[in-house]
Design brief:
The chain is an alpha+beta fold. Helix content is 18%, strand content 46%. The chain has 2 domains: 246 residues, no CATH class; 65 residues, no CATH class.
């Protein structure tokens, strides 16, 4: 019995040692060459603006916009394409790489990006997040992604499974098709639709009363749901209080609805060619068909049926001569009739 116990302890210890070594080797394999980064950047925003008023004599007030900043944390393992130049010694969170949005990476295997940024721009605060895991094999592609672009007001989770077909001996061009699953808020849903009159106007007075506001037209008093006086005349009520009330109502009603599933068919392509003098990298994805789950808040109901979502990118560079070169880079996405994009183009001339 004692011998059996000793053997069991030995085997468990050996398995534990083996599992630890396996775990460490696996972690080292997938995180090798990955970079973790965190940075804070900032600068002044737009200059102060003086505002003048003559309502009660000449009065001057100054509108001050707080400084801009960007707080970024991230970890990434993405092989750079031939045209990408790592100019900075360190990642500072302000880098923008259009190729991060491409369906395929430079190399096969696992690549990933996890990045979050909290920033203030011209007095407005935004939270941006971009996370993805991508695995590229010879005949298939798997990817999960989460994107939140506070400036463009878009947020969704997406996963895709695709069959990949290489065209040509070098495989520069590839065709892919498969299915995509997305989870997002009910885009297309407008809570104010039920308050629209036959004339197209909003019955904002009834809505305000239903939200708990009190209106005393005889004493020109308008109170919020907490009983605080928020306006003493019609102008302030309609120009200040009502817009804020409508905004809060829409946000609250949308937050009450759970995120919606979207199942779609996807068709796409990728092309990559690079030499020291000329390079072209392009990709596109089209979702022409979406499964209707019959949900009350499905985008099918707000759109009146099927629709087309798409995304794509283009990176082009040409060193025409030793002195002259030109470039174009950009990406564009349109989901649920919401668009967000970035681009840049230009010409470089070196005086020799």
């Amino acid at each position: 019995m004692n011998k059996l116990l000793i053997i069991l302890i030995f085997l468990l210890g050996s398995m534990n040692t083996f599992s630890q070594k396996t775990f460490k080797s696996t972690v080292k394999k997938y995180f090798k060459y990955a970079t973790f980064y965190g940075a804070v950047t900032g600068g002044n925003s737009i200059s102060d603006v003086d505002v003048y008023s003559v309502t009660n004599g000449l009065e001057t007030s100054t509108i001050t916009t707080p400084f801009d900043y960007n707080l970024t944390l991230g970890i990434r393992k993405i092989a750079r394409f031939g045209y990408e130049n790592r100019a900075n010694t360190f990642y500072d969170g302000t880098e923008t790489s259009f190729s991060d949005a491409s369906t395929l990476g430079k190399v096969a295997g696992l690549e990933f990006l996890f990045e979050g940024a909290y920033r203030r721009q011209q007095g407005n605060n935004f939270l941006d997040q971009h996370h993805f895991l991508r695995y590229v094999a010879n005949y298939w592609i798997g990817k999960v992604e989460y994107l939140q672009d506070g400036f463009a007001d878009i947020k969704y989770f997406e996963s895709s499974e695709r069959f990949r077909l290489k065209i040509g001996k070098k495989g520069k061009f590839s065709f892919n098709t498969g299915i995509v699953q997305r989870i997002a808020e009910p885009y297309g849903y407008n809570p104010l639709d039920e308050w629209v009159l036959s004339t197209g106007d909003i019955h904002y007075t009834s809505l305000a009363l239903s939200e708990g506001y009190e209106i005393d037209v005889y004493n020109s008093e308008y109170k919020d749901p907490n009983g605080n006086i928020v306006a003493t005349n019609t102008a302030i009520w309609e120009e200040v209080v009502i817009p804020e009330m409508l905004s809060n109502y829409v946000e609250r009603k949308r937050n009450e609805i759970s995120a919606q599933w979207n199942h779609s068919v996807v068709i796409g392509f990728d092309f990559y060619h690079f030499t020291n003098k000329f390079w072209l990298h392009s990709w596109a994805n089209v979702m022409p068909y979406h499964l209707n789950l019959g949900n009350q808040y499905s985008y099918h109901n707000f759109n009146g049926g099927q629709w087309i979502d798409y995304s794509g990118g283009l990176i082009y560079g040409w060193r025409i001569t030793k002195s002259l070169g030109t470039f174009i880079e950009g990406k564009y996405s349109k989901y649920w009739n919401r668009s967000w994009y970035d681009f840049k183009l230009g010409v470089n001339y070196i005086i020799l």
